[in-house]
Design goal:
Cadherin domain-containing protein; Immunoglobulin-like; calcium ion binding; 257 residues; mainly beta; transmembrane helix; 3 domains; single chain; rod-shaped; 40% strand; 4-stranded mixed beta sheet; cell adhesion
């Protein structure tokens, strides 16, 4: 209040940050202070401003001043961002439970809004094989089950990073990790097609091919060479080419004997 009843003029001293405020007089001795632009705590978390006041009789450049410290409160307006991570892993199918890799996401917000927790999005019901836990702000991905290359050899994991908002919007980010299972030798060969009965003439020449068998490695990712042999029932009469799988006669046949 001016004792002389003069109209007061309110203002803001020109300095860093003054452009965010607008002062509008609403009477001879009152003014409202408005924000002129949107604030961003991650850019400036506080503004030290100086308000000015004059009645027009103090002389040019003379003002009464009042310091104003404007503190910007944080809101949950930033999403977590994953740091560079290993997006593809190769894991042996005989690997035991243990840590596979670690991911980390950061959030520019303050306090709980900037704290990130991790979870594993369920994909094809495979969450019983893998898990993720939050340890010191990082997501630790573990193998918790037993892999089987012959059942499935590729897993697409999605790690979800979520900030700790309680009553505002929740911000999330997702990291995709491809797990490739490396086959190990744990399966026997498998015959593909074998005729249970075949016929051969008793006057067939020695070395006549009777049939061909074919087998594949039970370990699909290893694909070792298959070798064939006759283990029972053909002694002195039949033999098999170890590489081609052709069964052939080794002597003259006699149906009556």
């Amino acid at each position: 209040v001016d004792p002389d009843g003069d109209t007061l003029t309110f203002g803001v001293r020109e300095q860093i940050g003054h452009e965010i405020l607008r002062i509008e007089s609403i009477g001879v001795n009152e003014a409202n202070v408005y924000l002129k632009k949107e604030l961003d705590r991650e850019v400036h978390d506080e503004y030290a401003l100086v308000l000015t006041l004059t009645d027009g009789h103090l002389g040019d450049g003379n003002f009464i001043t009042q310091s104003l410290l404007l503190l910007v409160e944080d809101v949950n307006d930033n999403e977590p961002i994953f740091k560079p991570y290993q997006s593809s892993l190769v894991v042996r199918e005989d690997s035991g439970p243990g840590i596979l890799t670690t991911v980390e996401a950061t959030d520019s917000d303050e306090g709980p809004y900037g704290q990130v927790v991790y979870s594993l999005q369920e994909l094809d019901g495979e969450t019983d094989l893998f898990s993720v836990s939050t340890v010191n702000g990082k997501g630790v991905i573990r193998l918790v089950g037993h892999l089987d290359y012959e059942r499935k050899f590729l897993y697409q994991l999605r790690v979800l990073a979520v900030d700790r908002s309680n009553n505002e919007r929740i911000n999330t980010a997702t990291a995709a990790i491809l797990v490739k299972v490396q086959d190990v030798e744990d399966q026997p060969p498998e015959f593909v097609v074998v005729s249970p009965v075949t016929r051969v003439s008793e006057d067939a020449a020695i070395g006549t091919s009777v049939l061909q068998v074919r087998a594949v490695d039970g370990d699909r990712g290893v694909n070792n060479r298959i070798l064939y042999s006759v283990t029972k029932g053909g002694e002195g009469v039949f033999d098999i080419d170890a590489h081609s799988g052709f069964l052939y006669t080794t002597t003259k046949l006699d149906r009556e004997s």
